[in-house]
Automatic annotation (TrEMBL):
GO biological process, alphabetically ordered: phosphatidylinositol phosphate biosynthetic process
Compartment list: Cytoplasm
Pfam families tied to this protein: PIP5K
GO MF entries: 1-phosphatidylinositol-4-phosphate 5-kinase activity; ATP binding
Annotated signal sequence range: none
Superkingdom in the source lineage: Eukaryota
Region (Disordered): 416-438
A Gene Ontology term for the protein's cellular component: plasma membrane
Keywords on record: ATP-binding, Cytoplasm, Kinase, Nucleotide-binding, Transferase
Name the UniProt record assigns to this protein: Phosphatidylinositol 4-phosphate 5-kinase type-1 gamma
Length: 465
């Protein structure tokens, strides 16, 4: 059995070799066949003319679609040397509170990347998604969908361990006072007693409804940007027949942290070493929904660490870190797990269109609320008024009056949202149209390759079936 330390070492050796090898090759446009290339290199423990000696068992390292993933990393402003430094220079940190999937999670010491082990079917599904994923990222890098930076496989001792490198949604340098995994379902969606006993539990939908009935209140501009982003992302996921995804929500409570510091007699933040923000473009929550900055520009989020300013029902100031996770679930091979359950609206897994509709409705009507009494902060550099100015730390992200009043009771749903004024109306040709193309349309050019036009196409079934 491959131990965690062996796996971490093999990942770092393998990525170090494959990224270094790729950097010696000239850059070029991504071709259709690039999505299906798999490169393999053998790492004997005694070393070879290509690989260094190491103290692990012999292993083989596979890199999937190296040229395509190099393009994705470049799209997010990740240089090869920064990618190598983050992943290979310092030991990887294993997260002690992994998800229910049983996957192992590692985070890089600089908080930039998450490495997650995935099942064979998930890795296979990601490979098939790559052409459509490429198309969507190319048009719309600002998304709450996972940013995939690499897909690899370590073969050792007769086992295949597949890992994916992704963006880190919840930076460790920011204390998350609350953490939620939300699907928009209420069927068995409450954190277990065992989960609640953890030092940093992950709560679920019913916990959110019970503990935060007023929801999380955002100013009008931020709420609008978030709704538009969720709308685009849900329609993209639906078009790919993806379901059972979640919104990972981390809540940093500024007022609670100030109270904790006062109790501990800590110094003010001005006397402390400031945490370093993530470097990858569009990696933070605020960058993911912010549409006003020119494409490729860095956005100043140092004082909020990229969190989305919000207020809870008590009027406390919050910073939200959000992202959509667990998207590598195909309707075709997930639905059978639930085929013996009563198919009610509350069950977590449904056909993709229903799942997307319910997910979007729950997020925009229950979790996030528009509060017209909250004012957007003016931008320091004349950009869209979605971000806090860098004047007085996180305080600048909030207006003086923050009591939860004048709530917006408008009901939002995914179909009605199709007529939303999109960011395209603001001269943003780099964003997705309101209705994304289907997977089949997105991959028409790939028919001649190993991916058929029907490999991800499954007939829509009604819940009664």
């Amino acid at each position: 059995q491959t131990t965690s330390s062996t796996l971490k070492g093999a990942i770092q050796l393998g990525i170090g070799y494959t990224v270094g090898n790729l950097s010696s090759k000239p850059e070029r446009d991504v071709l259709m066949q690039d999505f299906y290339v798999v490169e393999s290199i053998f790492f004997p423990s005694e070393g070879s003319n290509l690989t260094p000696a190491h103290h692990y068992a012999d292993f083989r390292f596979k890199t999937y679609a190296p040229v395509a993933f190099r393009y994705f990393r470049e799209l997010f402003g990740i240089r090869p040397d920064d990618y190598l430094y983050s992943l290979c220079n310092e030991p990887l940190i294993e997260l002690s509170n992994p998800g229910a999937s049983g996957s192992l999670f590692y985070v890089t010491s600089d908080d930039e990347f998450i490495i997650k082990t995935v099942m064979h079917k998930e890795a296979e599904f990601l490979q098939k998604l790559l052409p459509g994923y490429y198309m969507n990222l190319n048009q719309n890098p600002r998304t709450l969908l996972p940013k995939f930076y690499g897909l690899y496989c370590v073969q050792s001792g007769g086992k295949n361990i597949r890992v994916v490198v992704m963006n880190n949604i919840l930076p460790r340098v920011v204390k998350m006072h609350l953490k939620f995994d939300l699907k928009g379902s209420t069927y068995k969606r409450r954190a277990s007693k065992k989960e609640k006993e953890k030092s940093s539990p992950t709560y679920k939908d019913l916990d959110f409804i019970q503990d935060m009935p007023e929801g999380l209140m955002l100013d009008a501009d931020t709420f609008s940007a978030l709704v538009k982003t969720l709308q685009r992302d849900c329609l993209v996921l639906e078009s790919f027949k993806i379901m059972d995804y979640s919104l990972l929500l981390g809540v940093h409570n500024i007022d609670q942290q100030e109270r904790e510091r006062q109790c501990e007699g800590a110094h003010s933040t001005s006397d402390e070493k400031r945490p370093v923000a993530q470097k990858a473009l569009y990696s933070t929550a605020m960058e993911s929904i912010q549409g006003g900055a020119a494409r490729g520009e860095a956005i100043d989020t140092d004082d909020t660490m990229g969190g989305i300013p919000a207020v809870n029902g008590k009027g406390e100031r919050l910073l939200l870190h959000v992202g959509i996770i667990d998207i590598l679930q195909s309707y075709r091979w997930v639905a059978w797990h639930f085929c013996f359950l009563p198919l009610q609206d509350t069950v977590s897994v449904h056909r993709p269109s229903f799942y997307a509709e319910r997910f979007f409705k729950f997020m925009t009507n229950t979790v996030f609320r528009k509060n017209s009494s909250l004012k957007s902060s003016p931008s320091k550099k004349g950009r869209s008024a979605l971000l806090a100015v860098k004047t007085a730390g996180p305080m600048a992200a909030f207006s003086a009056s923050q009591l939860p009043s004048e709530k917006d009771d408008t009901q939002y749903d995914l179909r009605a949202a199709r007529s939303y004024p999109t960011l395209d109306d603001e001269g943003r040709p780099d964003l997705l149209p309101c209705t994304p193309p289907s997977f089949e349309e997105a991959t028409t050019a790939s028919i001649a390759t190993t991916l058929s036009s029907t490999s991800l196409s499954v007939p829509e079934r009604s819940p009664s079936e």
